[in-house]
Amino acid sequence: DVKVTQSSRYLVKRTGEKVFLECVQDMDHENMFWYRQDPGLGLRLIYFSYDVKMKEKGDIPEGYSVSREKKERFSLILESASTNQTSMYLCASSFPVNSPLHFGNGTRLTVT
Amino acid sequence: AQSVTQLGSHVSVSEGALVLLRCNYSSSVPPYLFWYVQYPNQGLQLLLKYTSAATLVKGINGFEAEFKKSETSFHLTKPSAHMSDAAEYFCAVRGAFRSGGGADGLTFGKGTHLIIQP
């Protein structure tokens, strides 16, 4: 079974802090994704990566950056956390071309 | 651009009754469609996928969905609801390929919360 592991289930950070969300997958997937999930808005794509050191913006990249130094690890970075970034963050991975996404259990981030 | 509309943010059915969750999509490329389920405090789990083979797709837990191109729909059904089906359900469509060779992530609907009445 594919395993996508997000390092934290819950995080509480202060406004202005730099925040790192880590995600690791164990299936040698090329593609990795970061989504945020908010009530009534569904899931929205922040960034994705289809190869090491490659990244592309999703629909809502503002205020975020990503890093993919190794194939199995994809990090989401909040350069200066703000209260409107309080959300559930979901990492996912997949093989290329129309494969389903496999999700981690999510990180619930609260910014105060 | 791709988009997904799920009709009804909340659907309530009685245990044993038919479950019908509606999903309509728009896509600029041949669509690949997915249904996911999310139980409380968990990530999303794949229920089923349509990838241009049979139009009636069977998934896990007794769910199935039918792709109807003329209606741009991919509705999810289950003949008899069980209490354990209570969860959030998301319909998603694959994004188009971007330049550079990478595949987009999925575009998701806003979700339908399924409530099962005893």
Mind explaining what this structure looks like?
Chain A is mainly beta and 112 residues long. Helices cover 0% and strands 54% of the residues of chain A. Chain A contains no helices and eleven strands. Chain A has strands spanning 4-6, 10-13, 19-25, 31-38, 42-49, 56-57, 64-70, 73-78, 87-94, 102-103, 107-111. In chain A, strands 2, 4, 5, 6, 9, 10 and 11 form a seven-stranded mixed sheet that branches. With 118 residues, chain B is an all-beta fold. Chain B is 0% helix and 53% strand. Chain B is built from no helices and eleven strands. In chain B, a hairpin with a 5-residue loop joins strand 6 and strand 7. The model of chain B has no long low-confidence stretch (mean pLDDT 88). The interface between A and B is medium-sized, with 30 and 27 residues.
Describe this structure in a few short sentences:
The complex is a heterodimer of chains A (112) and B (118). Chain A is an all-beta fold and 112 residues long. Chain A has strands at residues 4-6, 10-13, 19-25, 31-38, 42-49, 56-57, 64-70, 73-78, 87-94, 102-103, 107-111.
